[in-house]
Amino acid sequence: MMPSGLPPLLLLHTGLGSRFDHHLESFLKTVLERGRRSLEAGEPATGVSWSVVGLLEESGFFNAGRGAIPQEDGIVRRDVGTMDGRTLDYLGIPGITTLSCPTRILPHLFGRTRHVLLSGDAASRWIEAEGLSDLPLPPVFDAASLRTWSGERDLEGHGTVGAVVRDRSGHLAATTSTGGAGRMRAGRIGDSAIPGAGTYADDRLGAVSMTGLGETILRTVAGYRILSAVSESLDRPSAVRTIREILSEIGEGISGQTGDPLNGQIGGILLSVRHGPFVFHHPGVLLAGAWRSGERGIVVSDRWEPEQDPCLAFS
Ligand code: GLY
Q1: Over the stretch 112-163, which tens digit does the pLDDT of each residue have?
Q2: What region does 15 belong to: left with phi over 0, alpha with psi -120 to 50, or beta?
Q3: How far is the CA of 169 from the centre of ligand 1 (A)?
């Protein structure tokens, strides 16, 4: 796909249920600001998505990276998925036990295998053979802010993190990282590492990163399903209606009950090539932030009301 000529854009989320306050807002603005600088410097979408998700992982504020929650055997298994919309290259590694911040390893591994999914154990052996093991973490945040947030981290499992990015050349990328969701049997794998479920990017369509109950997202291939439907929508208002309808269908399909979306509690961020950025959730609260070149700067919020507009409004 040739470059779209559309402005660079960075959209990130920190999962359904993450609480919003001014500390977190300022932290996310710092992350978005770093992403903005990288995009303006001409860095590719993949690399920017890895570095901003890496900052979210390192913070320990979310159920991803340093903040990831353990499974029932006490072992933390992290899932990461990333996709390059230019080439459709994908790398998903579920069940990582040897890296605290999995996206930090992606610049060393991505594009170096024809495989799409690698188990955490196999990936760990590869990483060790490369002499990479756990990379040193740059000291990004001060100790006081880390204490504030590590004390408040929600052990219910909220806080998958993800980003969708369009770079200066118009290429897209999506990256999602998680410690899972709530109580998990040992070895459980969620949606984040699985292409089309939690993570997807295609320069011709758009990019998406999902959050919420992985079992629901996996069973309904929610990420690609929503992205594809939005791409086929005639205009932005009909794309909004389409997202809403699909989320309801998913909720009802999974729960088996009309109007009972409890088990369909999912959300995400999406950048459509045709219709722009969207933040959506059903029926939770999704903390997300965005920056788009040439618009009114950085926006962070945890409320994207369907009645008003479930989309980011930049004007
Ligand atoms: N959405 C994250 C997970 O269920 O693993």
Answers
A1: 999 999 998 888 888 888 887 776 654 444 444 444 444 444 445 568 999 9
A2: left
A3: 31
